[in-house]
Amino acid sequence: MNSTDKIILPELLCPAGDLTRLKTAVDFGADAVYIAGEEFGMRTAASNFGEADMREGISYAHDRGVKVHIACNTLPHNDEICRIPAFLELCQDAGADAIIAADLGTIGLVKKHAPKCELHVSVQSGVVNYETANAFYNLGADRVVTARELSLAEIAEIRAKTPKELTLECFAHGAMCVSFSARCLLSSYMTGRDANRGDCAQPCRWSYSLVETNREGQHFDITETDKGTYILNANDLCMAQHLREMQAAGIGSLKIEGRAKSQYYVAVTANAYRGALDSLKDSDESWTLPPWVEEELNKISHRTYSTGFYFGRPENAQTYAHAGYVRDYAVAATVDGYEDGCIVATLRNKFRRGQELDCLEPKCEPFTVTATELFDGEGNPIDSAPHPMMKIKIPFSRPVKAGSMLRMKSE
Question: Could you tell me which of 9, 14, 17 has the C-alpha nearest to residue 53?
């Protein structure tokens, strides 16, 4: 790269399962957020957005220069189709920047009922080649989300053989799915919950044993343990170390998975990837990920990280021993403001006077806050903060932004 060249950064697209998480994603560095209404989104476990929250969320984001994409990407059945036009008209009227769709019928309805919104073709559509990407472009798509089965080399070829006006969006972080482009029947077969309509029970995370039909009731372990094996349990994706390669492949939007994840997860991932991208902006070929970013991504609940299919067939694709997450940190308190030389916060988890806390402040590298003194909301000295939602005060040398999170390492 010539020293005078500037890297054009991809958009940072963050998940928001409700209004609180939308505001968190915006505050901690997202360029765009993706949400869903009360129907037609692929995460029914998330709280999602009614009309009032949708309008408030879009207004909040737009006031801060952040775009809002609304998912309408389930595969709807006949009885649902009649409700989609009104939903799309609501999204457009509320000011949505884009509608995410997968089903061809729904795509046609988007162009008819929300023509002012961009059309983004969901990962559910399985875009794995440039001909398919071009076909969706010819149907009016402004963006396609590439299938997670693709390598960076394949994505670069799609970029080279599609119009520059078509944005390529790719997943950079979060849970992976063992089914082709997230289309799965396993949940429907085993629980009656349709994964293609946002209600996946995640049976790929369950433990399995082998049964021989003539030996009823005898379960044969597939591994060397007596606890069965998690044969479908895909590791999480983390491409933070490889943002330069993603940018060089022509990816225009980096997507963080997780509309069902917590506010804390949204804050950490948005802040970490914002910091990583900003450090990439003016760098040269020797760019490396700032160490604090990698540390941050290990402070959220996650499975073992991998790079998915981006560099070919995954070497560490699955964890067979267990389905559990790594959870090393907990939120101690959320910051409400700064008064009279003290951080004012609302308690989330008990901690003690003298305890060292890790402060996550929006769009900043984390720093340490030590509770050498601790007071309740009325200013009385206390040895510990034991009651969730109680107000506390911690003396500190400078103001800390409202919305920051004080964290502690789990015991």
Answer: 17
* Cβ atoms 390, 377 nearer than 8 A: yes
* pTM for this prediction: 0.87
Q: How far apart are alpha carbons 16 and 14 in whole angstroms?
A: 7
Let me know: does 358 contact 408? Beta carbons within 8 Å: yes
Query: Which residues have a Cβ under 8 Å from the Cβ of 91 and sit 6 or more positions away?
Result: 37, 54, 70, 72, 99, 114, 117
Report the relative pairing of strands 356-360 and 405-409 from DSSP bridges. Answer: antiparallel
Start-to-end Cα distance in the chain: 46
Decide: 18 and 7 in contact? Cβ < 8 Å: no
- DSSP secondary structure letters along 381-408: B-SEE-STT-EEEEE-SS---TT-EEEE
CA–CA separation, 26 and 31 (whole Å): 7
Taking residue 247's Cβ as centre, other Cβ atoms within 10 Å add up to 17
Report percent pLDDT > 70 for the chain. Answer: 85
Which of 284, 322, 255 lies closest to 3 in space, CA to CA? 284
Distance CA 91, CA 55 (A): 9
State which amino acid sits at residue 367: F
From residue 347, alpha-carbon distances to 178, 333, 375, 386 in Å are 39, 4, 12, 8
Cβ contact 36:54 at 8 Å: no
How sure is the predictor about 43, in pLDDT bands with cuts at 50, 70 and 90?
Answer: low
Apex CA 170: angle with CA 167 and CA 173, to 5°?
145
- Please tell me the predicted confidence (pLDDT) of residue 16: 96
Q: What sign results for the dihedral spanned by CA atoms 244, 248, 249, 255? A: positive
Distance CA 160, CA 153 (A): 11
Least confident of 6-20, 196-210, 384-398: 196-210
Rounded CA gap, 306 and 261, in Å?
Answer: 19
Helices 84-94 and 51-63 pack at an angle, to 10 degrees, of 30
Residue 241's pLDDT is 97
Question: For residues 218 and 211, is the Cβ–Cβ distance under 8 A?
Answer: yes
What torsion, rounded to 10 degrees, do the Cα atoms 362, 263, 269, 296 define? 80
| Cβ 404 vs Cβ 335: under 8 Å | yes
